[in-house]
C-alpha cells in the first residue's frame, strides 16, 4: 500500500487524533442511547447513573494497563487492538436485553476511552521535547468526539433506534481501527526498546510527582467533564432554562473546551507548562470562588464565567501532559495512563459529589465550592514543590 504523503510525525499525529476522536465519540454513546434504554428497562435514577457512568469508569481504570502495554509492545498494535475490542463490545451492546447485559457491554465500550493513554505514548515518541506539548495538545482535541455524539447520535437513534445507532458506531470504530493499522507505522523507539519487567514499569509510580500531576489532571480534566455533565441540570435548577437550551449550552461548553487544548499545548511549548498551570489554577480559583459565593450572578454572567473556567481548564489539560514525556521519557505510557486514570475518575466521581452536596446542603453553588477546594490544593502543592527546588530546576 502506498504511503500517504505526510512526514512520519504528522502522519502519526493525524491518524491518532482522528482515531481518538472516534473513540471518544463511542466512549460517550450512552449519553444519548441511554435515554431510550432507560425507558425500555424502566431504570431508576441510580441504575441509569451507573449505566451511563460505567464506560467512564472502566475507560479510566484501563489506562494504566494500556499505557504500560504501549511502552512494552508499541502504540500501533495496542491502539488497533483496543479499538477492535471496543468495536466488538459496541456491536454486542446492540443485542443486550437485560440490565446486567448492558452493564457488561458498557465495560467493553469503556475500552474506547482508554485509548487516550495509548495515543499519548505513541504520539510523543515522534516529536522532540520542544514540540511535544503542541503535538499532545492537538491529539487531545479528540475530546470533540463527545460533541459529535451529542449532535449526531440523536439523529441516528431517531432513524435507526438505539440498536442501529450502536451498530453504526461499532462499524465506524472497526473501520477506523483497520485504517489506522494500514496507514500508521511503529513508533521510532519501538525497534530499539529494551524490554523491562513489570516491576520496573510500576516502580515509577512511587515518584510523588506522579501523584501531584494526577491531582492537577483530576481538576482540569475530571472537573471539566463533571461540569459538562452537571451544567444542564444546574441551569435548569437555578435559572429555569428549558431542557433544550440547557443541553445546547452544555454542548457549547464542551466543544471549545476541547479545541483550546491544542492552543494550551502550543503555549506550554513556548512559555513552559509551569507558567500555563499557574494561569490555569489562578484563574480557575477566582472563577470557582465567584461561582461558589452567594452573589446572585445572572445567567449571562454565570455562562461567561463558566466559559472562562472551561477555557483555562482546556489549557491546563495540555500543560499537565507536557510534563510527562519530559520527566518520564521511558515511561510515558505508564505515567500518562496513571494520570489519565485519575483524571477520568474525576469525571465519574465529581458528578456524584455534586449531587450529594446538593442533597445535603440544598445549595446549588456547592459544586463550585468543591472545585475551589481542589484547585486551591493543586495550586498550593505546586507552589510548595517549586519552592523546595534549586533555582532553574523543573518541578
UniProtKB/TrEMBL annotation:
Record-linked Pfam families: MFS_1
InterPro entries, sorted: MFS (IPR011701), MFS_dom (IPR020846), MFS_trans_sf (IPR036259), NO3_transporter (IPR044772)
Gene Ontology biological process terms in this record: nitrate assimilation
Recorded GO CC terms: membrane
PROSITE patterns, A to Z: MFS
Keywords: Membrane, Nitrate assimilation, Transmembrane, Transmembrane helix
Compartments where found: Membrane
Start and end residues of each Major facilitator superfamily (MFS) profile domain: 9-393
Gene Ontology molecular-function annotations: nitrate transmembrane transporter activity
Topological relation to the membrane, as annotated: Multi-pass membrane protein
Regions that span the bilayer: 12-35, 47-66, 78-96, 102-123, 135-160, 166-183, 213-231, 243-263, 275-295, 301-320, 332-357, 363-382
PANTHER family: HIGH-AFFINITY NITRATE TRANSPORTER 2.3 (PTHR23515)
UniProt record similarity statement: Belongs to the major facilitator superfamily. Nitrate/nitrite porter (TC 2.A.1.8) family.
Name of the protein this chain belongs to: NarK/NasA family nitrate transporter
Source organism of the structure: Gemmobacter lutimaris
Amino acid at each position: 500500500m502506498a504511503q500517504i504523503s505526510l512526514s512520519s510525525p504528522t502522519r502519526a499525529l493525524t491518524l491518532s487524533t482522528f482515531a481518538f476522536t472516534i473513540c471518544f465519540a463511542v466512549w460517550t454513546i450512552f449519553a444519548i442511547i441511554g435515554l431510550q434504554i432507560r425507558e425500555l428497562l424502566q431504570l431508576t435514577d441510580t441504575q441509569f447513573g451507573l449505566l451511563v457512568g460505567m464506560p467512564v469508569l472502566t475507560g479510566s481504570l484501563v489506562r494504566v494497563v494500556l499505557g504500560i502495554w504501549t511502552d512494552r509492545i508499541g502504540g500501533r498494535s495496542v491502539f488497533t487492538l483496543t479499538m477492535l475490542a471496543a468495536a466488538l463490545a459496541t456491536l454486542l451492546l446492540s443485542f443486550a436485553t437485560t440490565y446486567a447485559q448492558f452493564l457488561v457491554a458498557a465495560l467493553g465500550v469503556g475500552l474506547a476511552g482508554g485509548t487516550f493513554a495509548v495515543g499519548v505514548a505513541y504520539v510523543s515518541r515522534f516529536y522532540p521535547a520542544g514540540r511535544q506539548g503542541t503535538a499532545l495538545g492537538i491529539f487531545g482535541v479528540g475530546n470533540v468526539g463527545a460533541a459529535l455524539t451529542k449532535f449526531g447520535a440523536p439523529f441516528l437513534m431517531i432513524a435507526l433506534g438505539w440498536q442501529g445507532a450502536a451498530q453504526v458506531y461499532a462499524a465506524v470504530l472497526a473501520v477506523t481501527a483497520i485504517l489506522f493499522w494500514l496507514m500508521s507505522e511503529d513508533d521510532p523507539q519501538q525497534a530499539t526498546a529494551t524490554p523491562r519487567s513489570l516491576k520496573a514499569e510500576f516502580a515509577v509510580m512511587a515518584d510523588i510527582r506522579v501523584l501531584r500531576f494526577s491531582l492537577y489532571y483530576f481538576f482540569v480534566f475530571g472537573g471539566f467533564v463533571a461540569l459538562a455533565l452537571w451544567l444542564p441540570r444546574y441551569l435548569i435548577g437555578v435559572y429555569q432554562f428549558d431542557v433544550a437550551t440547557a443541553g445546547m449550552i452544555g454542548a457549547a461548553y464542551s466543544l471549545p473546551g476541547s479545541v483550546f487544548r491544542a492552543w494550551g499545548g502550543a503555549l506550554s511549548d513556548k512559555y513552559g507548562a509551569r507558567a500555563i498551570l499557574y494561569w490555569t489554577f489562578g484563574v480557575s480559583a477566582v472563577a470557582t470562588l465567584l461561582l461558589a459565593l452567594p452573589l446572585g450572578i445572572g445567567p449571562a454572567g454565570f455562562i461567561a464565567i463558566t466559559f472562562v473556567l472551561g477555557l483555562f481548564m482546556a489549557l491546563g489539560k495540555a500543560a499537565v501532559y507536557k510534563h510527562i514525556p519530559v520527566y518520564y521519557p521511558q515511561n510515558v505510557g505508564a505515567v500518562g495512563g496513571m494520570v489519565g486514570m485519575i483524571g477520568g475518575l474525576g469525571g465519574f466521581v465529581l458528578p456524584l459529589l455534586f449531587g450529594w452536596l446538593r442533597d445535603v446542603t440544598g445549595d446549588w453553588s456547592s459544586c463550585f465550592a468543591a472545585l475551589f477546594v481542589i484547585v486551591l490544593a493543586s495550586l498550593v502543592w505546586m507552589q510548595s514543590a517549586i519552592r523546595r527546588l534549586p533555582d532553574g530546576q523543573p518541578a
